[in-house]
Design a protein that fits this description.
2 copies of one chain form a homodimer. In chain A, strands 1, 10, 11, 12, 13, 14, 15, 16 and 17 form a 9-stranded mixed beta sheet that branches. The two termini of chain A are about 20 Å apart. Chain A has helices at about 25-40, 55-65, 75-85, 100-105, 120-135, 155-165, 190-210, 230-235, 250-255, 345; strands spanning about 20-25, 45, 70, 90-95, 110-115, 135-140, 170-175, 220, 240, 270-280, 285, 300-305, 310, 320-325, 335-340, 350-355, 365-370. The first copy, chain A, has about 375 residues and is an alpha/beta fold. The interface between A and B is large, with 70 and 70 residues.
């Protein structure tokens, strides 16, 4: 059962129960508009990654602003999005396991579905499932362009896979997935540029082999919030997959921006609201947001508009705030907004988005309650 | 909406879709029985902490074996448990915020409910809410016995709070919450003993002040899986709250056991099943379990029965397994069982427990699918 929502629509922000996942709807709108305009300017298709927001409401807004569809990582995420009417979903991941492949194949009767492979054995399993379901699946070959995770090495390997896909009923070779995840978080623009230049060389070499073997690469897709402008200008990628731009997080904010890469030009739009629930000494305040309210894998949260307060020592249900010398103390019962270290897995902890208008102003109020459609979708 | 269950009852273990939260039902039964026997032998009340399992099925089994009730940390967890028929729940935490206090007060009409306080202002808020709901709430004063988180300092402070509780309608002063969370994970038995001895001194001093002020301490409750035998033998605590013993995790397994503390005498009963989803180089295997499938706050998981394999570099949906020299490689599509670093927040990531009988034997099969009743209960 989903939990009860932590607020009522129309209520002042002060009445939101905590911990709660807050979306600044004004900042979200700015971020969505800015990315739509950037993708148009770059002249590439925008396919935002829904693994960040896991929300069919936000996916629909992205598509209404010109996105061709969305990405996700899991079959069950795709099911949640398609179930709410999203018509074009690319699973940017390898799907291994009979049950989930069958689910994906059936989903492809309801929406345009793409999926990645990096192993020849996958192809027959996908084809059999698609035949069984009577559906058609777009298949992209994932190329490892530097993240050292999934994907075949750049070069000749993709051609053999493309040939096998082309021979397979109910599958269509749709192109290459070339995403350099690690590069998104390289701090300096030069490091990010160098990483994507190297990735580009690998993609170009792979396309050369595919072309020689007679396979056209309709789609070359990849890129995230940290690098999408580099891929977008490369002349090689024709589709970009930024996800985190909708919310931004503390880790992305550590990237040094430059005029072209622009990750830091998006606004923080996602917060965890927490309450000071214990303050029995003057040197610390305990808030009701720990591991179950924040994913701390990429560092601890920042306290919004309070650089003089730091978050420490999370346990499951608690976090400890400490103060720099002279900082004004929080009051017992006071609420704070935390900027998560990493948005995607933090969103996964909640059933509800609390959409707020006018955040930071006296008129701030709850405008919307959105379910986190893909929450817990691990399959 | 909860996600679909990852398996069918009766199916062989090989057909479970991944990532999935697996309970070894045989090991769980052994752990439940062992703790029930230990508490009887110690002569203290057992009130297991449900924050580990978040499951009303397991809570009911604990109570059937003699537990007086369960603990939890959140109002919404208590609601989930009471909604499934658990009749006695102690919230071992401070509850701050009007909405959740009102919910707690209404819940106290349906079950015996206790809650902790460490701030005088809490008392009137709880009393008003209980009066409004027409309920009675047991109130325990939390004493900070070394965890440096919530709780008043040992000594005189509790007496003033007890007096205020005693004056308040619809509240009953029920005793002390004295839990040393940090001590649970001290590695050596001597460190754990020393920490609980110091905690005991603080509790004894607090009780002396309360007694002098005319307040009887009906319940002194606390202790976890790492130390409960020390508190249980202390003559001061009359109730213990171990939680992790039901499952154990990799972090607890690092505690050095001794004859009396016995944390390591419980068996691992909780696993995350994962699949090798990519293996494009021979030096690593990528599994489909990352931050969304495992809480890595207390360290990465171990691979069950494969000490020659290590888990590294988790991202949201992936983990990387590496092999010691000469280790037999896993096959693409092969499933592995991971022992989570930290059970409680890992359980929180799943909608379903997959209960397995005969784990490790050819006959192993899915025996039960249990909802994670308190999943996502952050309020």
């Amino acid at each position: 059962m989903p939990t009860l929502p932590p607020a009522d629509i129309g209520a002042p922000v002060s009445e939101i129960d905590t911990p709660a996942l807050i979306v600044d709807l004004d900042a979200l709108t700015r971020n969505l508009d800015k990315m739509a305009a950037l993708a148009r300017k770059l002249g590439v298709r925008l396919r935002p990654h829904a693994k960040t927001h896991k929300s069919s409401v936000i996916a629909a807004r992205q598509i209404a602003l010109g996105a061709v569809g969305v990405c996700c990582q899991k079959v069950s995420e795709a099911e949640a999005l398609v179930g709410d009417g999203i018509g074009d979903v690319l699973v940017t991941n390898e799907i291994v396991g009979a049950r989930k492949i069958a689910r994906l194949a059936h989903l492809a009767r309801q929406a345009r579905i793409g999926v990645c492979i990096d192993q020849v054995e996958s192809i027959a399993l996908l084809a059999d499932a698609a035949q069984g379901a009577g559906s058609q699946i777009d298949v992209l070959i994932e190329v490892d362009v530097g993240a050292r995770r999934c994907g075949v090495a750049p070069g000749a390997a993709a051609s053999k896979l493309a040939a096998q896909i082309a021979r397979s009923p109910n599958l269509r070779f749709a192109g290459l997935q070339a995403y350099h995840g690690a590069a998104q978080h390289f701090r300096s623009p030069d490091e990010r540029s160098a990483a994507i230049e190297a990735a580009k060389a690998g993609v170009v070499e792979t396309i050369r082999h595919l072309t020689a073997a007679g396979f056209a690469c309709e789609t070359v897709t990849g890129a995230g919030t940290g690098t999408f402008q580099i891929e977008g200008r490369s002349g090689v990628w024709n589709e970009v997959q930024p996800g985190s731009y909708v919310f931004m997080d503390r880790d992305y904010a550590k990237n040094t921006p430059d005029d072209t890469h622009g990750a830091a030009a998006f606004d923080h739009a996602l917060f965890v609201m927490a309450t000071v629930m214990s303050m029995t000494t003057s040197d610390q305040a305990v808030v009701d947001a720990g591991h179950k309210a924040l994913s701390n894998d990429s560092g601890f949260p920042a306290v919004w508009q309070r650089p003089d307060i730091s978050y420490h020592r999370p346990s499951d249900e608690h976090g400890v705030l400490t103060f720099v010398d002279g900082a004004q103390r929080l009051a017992w019962g006071e609420k704070v907004l935390l900027i998560p270290g990493h948005c995607d897995p933090t969103v996964n902890l909640y059933d509800w988005y609390v959409g707020v208008c006018g955040l930071g102003r006296p008129s701030a109020h709850v405008e919307a309650l959105w379910p986190v459609t893909g929450r817990g979708a691990v399959i």
